[in-house]
């Protein structure tokens, strides 16, 4: 589909599934190389990162574990600038190598919040992997270790990304047009 309608907004095709999957494979290869022998704990940020995480895990060839947290900082098409923890961490992280997995980093607020919490819990190391990164929207000061694709500051949906909890199921990514 070249266009979709979600609630009151129109979106056009922006990144096709095959391009997304190539970017994820590249990230998986980088992580597999750098984290070999380190048994990292992958911490997946729900809801958006579930599709990225599933595809990423298909391509990892290292010993690792996975866990999930659910955080929220968006309402509609804009950040609320407040991170809410809806489902918390259920693994001990002290001394562990952590890879945070996020669908998209724009302002960086959610990741900064999570990184600081993991440091307080004495994680051995914290790395960040994101499917998408919006450098022009980024306001924080932390390093992003693994980036699938850099994109402009457009509002997007599909491949796990939503608009008011809808459109996560599309295999492609669409950007807003109206």
Q: Can you put this structure into words, describing what you see?
A:
It is a single chain. The protein is of the alpha/beta class and 178 residues long. The chain has a single domain (17-151), classed as Rossmann fold (3-Layer(aba) Sandwich). It is built from three helices and ten strands, in the order E-E-H-E-H-E-E-E-H-E-E-E-E. Strands 5-4-3-6-7-8 form a six-stranded mixed beta sheet. Strands 1-2-10-9 form a four-stranded antiparallel beta sheet. A hairpin with a 2-residue loop joins strand 1 (3-6) and strand 2 (9-15). Helix 1 packs across helix 2. It starts with a strand and ends with a strand.
List keywords for this structure.
single chain, 178 residues, alpha/beta, six-stranded mixed β-sheet, four-stranded antiparallel β-sheet, Rossmann fold
Helix content: 10-25%
Low-pLDDT residue intervals, each spanning 5 or more residues: none
| Strand arrangement in the largest pleated sheet | 5-4-3-6-7-8
Mean pLDDT, all residues: 91
Q: What is the first-to-last residue Cα distance?
A: 17 Å
In CATH, what is the class? Alpha Beta
What is the CATH T-level topology?
Answer: Rossmann fold
**SS element count, helices:** 3
